[in-house]
Amino acid sequence: MRDVKWFTDARFGIFMHWGLYSIPAGVWKGKKMGRNWYSEWIRMQHNWPEPGGIPREEYDTLLDQFNPDKFNPNHWIKQFKEAGAKYFLITAKHHDGFALWPSKVSEYNVYDATPMKRDVLGELKEACDKHEIKMGFYYSHWLDWEHPGGGLPPWPSAENPNDPPMMQPSQKLYDEYWYGKCIPQVRELIENYDPKFFWFDSWNDKSEMFLTEKRLDDLIGAVRDASGHCLVNSRIGTTWSHPKGDSIVDYLSMGDNEFPDTQIPRPWETSGTFNNAWACHKLDYSWKSSETLLKSLVDNASRGGNFQLNIGPNADGSFSPAMIRRLKEIGGWLIVNGEAVYGTSSTSLKDPAWGRIVKRDLPDGNTRLYCHVYDWVPNKNIDIDDLSCEPVKASVLETGEPIEVSVDKKIVSMMLTEHCPDDRISVIVLDVIGKVPSYCEAFGDKMCEPHSTFNF
User: Which class is domain 355-437?
Assistant: First the structure.
């Protein structure tokens, strides 16, 4: 059985892409990599649309350069704690096959193949435990460009028909990778670091030739056998590659930077970026504002989901100033308004034009609504439609300033004061008599509940 309540209560986590690809940071020999901003793909996408990318022997010159002198796990995790994150997720192994721990399964790792010779994951685990941050791992199970049997980029695609074809390994070779590297490394990660969740990565039906029912069952089974609590996400491939679909995983992962506009009847998350890139890209200056990032968090929370904000450290282990500023701004907002995010649930109420609403069930059987106001217009009424519960009182969460409330039939109106607490998102606390149903309670889908558990 897998309990996902801690995950849904957390609402906000930090994702991280960091590895050999952080050294070129999207630029190889003075030339910007092709195809897109995904700099962790540089080995295969540098010379796109030519197939093959950077030759393996040339890419592996990065091994001797990987010795980040500013890698400070305690400082990293402390910053994430101060930003309000409740959990941390890092690329233990990305598509290039390079591992950030001293793996006994493959010498293509940070300890055996680089001058760093440190257990990155082990040190981060200690820091997470110290700061009470739960830790999980991204593991590239489908693609692996180091092992001769690992999957290669699934080109071409319907969206990009001119993408060059890649010669994929045989099924026999892929079995050698799957059972000789993938599953043993996943077991190793669980045994060594006790992760609370995995984030496996695939994204379309081109994975079907390798992510077969048996292979997925064996991988998920390995996680279940090795840990009684470690969660598994849907991008392991169940969405498009398993006859039982996502019923056999613990939480759903949306597409990259995909923010649904409706409720989703399962525990779920969106992983999103500060800009266009996931790993560090030295030419990506398209930084999103802290307001945009906070609204992504609140939007997802109002629909029952989490937001995992991705960090792409520099090759030396430092963070860019733009990243640090936004982390501090998000953390400052959550210090004041975290009560309106952590441990809240969605409601059956429709999204109002002025913002979003989440709720907390109170011990006395009543409900506290948190009204996230995106556009505060002084002396203007904002309405909540179809609210059958009688309001008791309303106030600004940050300042405690009272908010005038009136009721006309099932429409509750609140008069915004002249004092806007925050021009990004201001939160009003509205206590009402009785229970405001969650989306799941209103529509009868028990799979929605944060405490839901799933059997494999």
Answer: mainly beta
